[in-house]
């Protein structure tokens, strides 16, 4: 933390001034203590930086639950490069980085007509099953992830949807392909 490291400098100066106010000379013991204390912080900082700067192959999974990993691995095993995933932005925060295909609406900077697509997603999640089925078909959606707040059980009646995985984090559906 920058504040902690920065605060050490004025505290050290004040402590040195207080010491010199009380004593006119510095003993070898006091000098040794000062060197050890002042030298320990940079050594500790460099050691912790080196330990945390190495590459970790499990880094994406560090902040994900086992359920998140299960959903991601299911998508990785089934999705291809051209398969489109529809999910809310909150789910895409952890789904998008490892999803091998495309997203209907992803990051605002990477999505053409982002605001319109966000509104379409809102409308989709509130629509009736027939409208939802038509939306999925028209836009070529292959996978749908529904979070618990959107009541995944409502999507069981949408024509062409098959539940791939149902977890406490949400439900993953596959849209049936029509010939």
What keyword list fits this structure?
179 residues; alpha/beta; five-stranded mixed beta sheet; 5 strands; 13% strand; elongated
Which helices and strands, and how do they pair?
Elements lengths: L1 H21 L5 H25 L13 H13 L5 E3 L2 H7 L6 E2 L10 H13 L2 H10 L2 E6 L14 E7 L2 E6 L4
Parallel strand pairs: 1-2, 1-3
Antiparallel strand pairs: 3-5, 4-5
Average pLDDT over all residues: 85
How many distinct beta strands?
Answer: 5
- The oligomeric status of these chains comes to single chain
The value of Rg in angstroms is: 28 Å
Poorly predicted runs: none
Q: How much strand?
A: 5-15%
SSE arrangement, N to C: HHHEHEHHEEE
* Adjacency order of strands in the biggest sheet: 2-1-3-5-4
- Count of discrete alpha- or pi-helical segments spanning 4 or more residues: 6
- Structural class designation: alpha/beta
Termini separation: 58 Å
General form: elongated
Q: Strand count, sense and closure of the main sheet?
A: 5 strands, mixed
Helix percentage range: 40-55%
Explained architecture:
- It is a single chain.
- The protein has 179 residues and is α/β, with parallel strands linked by helices.
- It is built from six helices and five strands.
- Strands 2-1-3-5-4 form a five-stranded mixed beta sheet.
In short:
With 179 residues, the protein is an alpha/beta fold. It has 6 helices and 5 strands, in the order αααβαβααβββ.
